[in-house]
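Two quick folds needed for the group meeting slides. Do the first one here.
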Amino acid sequence: MYSRLYNDMCTTNILVNEQYGFTINSSTEASSYIIFNEILKDTNIRISVGGTLCDLEKAFDCVNRGIVVDRLEFSGISR
């Protein structure tokens, strides 16, 4: 199921380059590394840096499963 969904998302360009979680050859560690390097670059040239952190733990518990199923079926993926 994962392979089918992932291939479909890649061919339809749903995923953006900045998507790090749940993608092949990528990780949240890679995302952290890129963000950290951007912060260092900016602070080295004396640009102020700010950030907002969001804890999305259990975020999928809030997803309306009916909407997800409808979207999957609309995309041609059925039960």
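Then this one, please, same format:
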Amino acid sequence: MAAPVILCIDDDPFRLTTLSEVLSAQGYSVLTAPEAKSGLELFLAHDNIELVVTDYYMPGKNGAMLALDMKHAKPWVQILLISGTLTMPEFVIALVDGFHPSGDETEQLLAKVKELLHKSQKATGAA
């Protein structure tokens, strides 16, 4: 069985690299994008993406607006929103499948990723 494909989008190069390395070390196949526009292009070009991990605060288009575009195109793909803030407004949380404060422990992030991938696989019948 192929490794789940995760798309990571973050305008902070250090966080993007760190996130990619952490997920790759867990056996996931990771695609990265440094901002929303290229992230959406990658998302639309790859049919095998099961999870998107995106930053909320990005120039041009924030993570909530990006999630709207992605859910419109492929509603079955899980979206995990990360942010340096501890909370997000409820209307933003309603647009995504999960929220993770980026300062939280790596183990908590990986648990959330695993949970959302499980939901994705159940929804598509891949599990």
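Slide caption for protein two: The chain has a mean pLDDT of 90.
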